[in-house]
Amino acid sequence: MHTLQIKDESTSGEILNELLLQFESEYITVEQLIKARIDAEIKRYEKDAEGYRKGLVQSGHLEKRLNKPNKQIDAEKQLYVALKSFKENGFFILVDDEQVDELQQKFFVDESTVVSFIKLTPLIGG
User: Fold this and answer.
1) Which pLDDT value is given to residue 6?
2) What average pLDDT does the segment 11-26 reach?
3) What pLDDT, on a 0 to 100 scale, did the predictor assign at position 83?
4) In whole angstroms, what is the distance from residue 126 CA to residue 123 CA?
5) 2 and 113 in contact (C-beta within 8 Å)?
6) Order of strands across the sheet that contains 91-95
7) Window from 7-11, 69-73, 104-108 with minimum mean pLDDT
C-alpha cells in the first residue's frame, strides 16, 4: 500500500484539514484521488458526524441525512458534484506544489508526495 498525505488549504496557505489516504497502485489519476477522498470523507462522517470537518462532501446533503438517519450518503452523487466542481475550477489540486488540471492525469504516490486541495472562494456578486 502507498500512503498519500492530503491537505486542505486556504488560498493564503493556511492548512484547514489533513488526512491520509492509501492506494494499492503507485500511480493514480486525479479522478481516482478525488473518488478515494470522497469515500474516506463519507466513512469519516458516518463514524463521527459531529466531528466531521468540511471537505469535498457537500454539507447540505449531510444535513438532509441528519433528518433521515437510515438514509445512506450517495457516494456516486457526491463524486459527481466533486468532479464537476474540479472541472469548473471550484477548487484546484497541487501535487508536490504543481497544479494538476486533468482528471486522467497520473502522478506518483509515496510517503513524500504531498497533495493540496485549494478551494476557491467565489467573489460576492459574481
Assistant:
1) 92
2) 88
3) 94
4) 6
5) no
6) 15-23, 2-9, 114-119, 91-95, 98-100
7) 69-73
Q: Report the alpha-carbon distance of residue 54 to residue 67 in Å, rounded.
A: 19
Q: Is 124 within a domain? A: no
Structural domain span for residue 11: 2-119
Distance CA 33, CA 100 (A): 12
Q: Three cell numbers at 23?
A: 492506494
Let me know if residue 126 belongs to a domain.
no
The reply to whether 58 falls in a domain is: yes
C-alpha cell at 55: 471537505
- How many domains in the chain? 1
Provide the pLDDT for residue 126. 47
**pTM of the entire structure?**
0.81
Q: Could you read off the pLDDT of 20-62 as tens digits, one per residue?
A: 999 999 999 999 999 999 998 888 877 765 556 666 665 555 5
**At 66, which CATH number?**
3.10.20
CA distance 60 to 93: 23
**CA 108 to CA 110: how far, in whole Å?**
7
Q: What is the DSSP string of 33-59?
A: HHHHHHHHHHHHHHH-TTTPPP-SS-H
